[in-house]
# Entry
Amino acid sequence: KGYADKNRWIYNNKKSEQSMEQLESITRKLYIGVNQSLYLGQVPVPHRDHAIATDKLLVSLQGGFQITLENGDQIVSRSCLLKAGMNLKNAKLNMDNAVMAVYLLAPLTQDYSTLESTMSHAIDGLHYDHPEQQELINTLVGIRETPTTPEQAFYQLRRFIIKNQQENKIFKEFDERIIQVVHDIRSTALQNLTLKQFAQSVHLSESRLEKLFKEQMGIPITRYRLRYRVLIGIIQLGLGLTITEAALAAGFSSTAHFSKSFSAINGIPPSETFFKLPHLEVLIADDVFKTMPVVVHQNSISAQYKNKTLAV
# Structure
């Protein structure tokens, strides 16, 4: 059941004797935009071996974390950049319940390539030590400790991704056909379109599309489609739906199917993210409702919840 304030909707899915004030003080936060998201809080379990599905920047807000490479070399840092498609079998990240920021970067942008050019190289797909690490940490702590909208949070982080002098620099060219396919995947997320249909829409063979998509996005097209459906499920959970309701609204056949897919994409199950203390506060940007109509049409929550903050 819920707790409502004028501009705030809080759903408490846990039975707890703690006061609302106590819950507020330990809340984890998840900011969701259409193309990027930011998690602030404890990482509940160490990352399991899985292929990274999205370019991401990890920053430790309290203390450092250890990176152990496949050859046994160890790196201690407070920031780490991971590329989509990188397999964590090649490097172990020991965060062990550290308070972290996990920033999923926008695809089809220069964000990853720009960060890659400024950070230290460990292995392909893994870089560490952001050049403005301490200032970045201070900014993330400020976002976590003060009321901040998703739009404000992403704006504050922007200057740590691309500097003014890099604004127009092109590190990586993106194929127009792949940009179109990504758009089509998003707009038909709940339709079971075949690979052949996507390939025909951009006048490519299926094998050529598969190869080109992975070259450009870092992951296979099937995995990208799965990642986007999982994102829809995450948003539904943030809107207060149960796992079963969120799974069905995102086009999964069952709760088990959704949980398995969530774990494959994120390395942890949804129960670890959404249904364990400390509670998770989910903040959803306006553009999610404007550009992802499936979120509005498929959920059972009234449109009045748009632009609200929710915690589960």
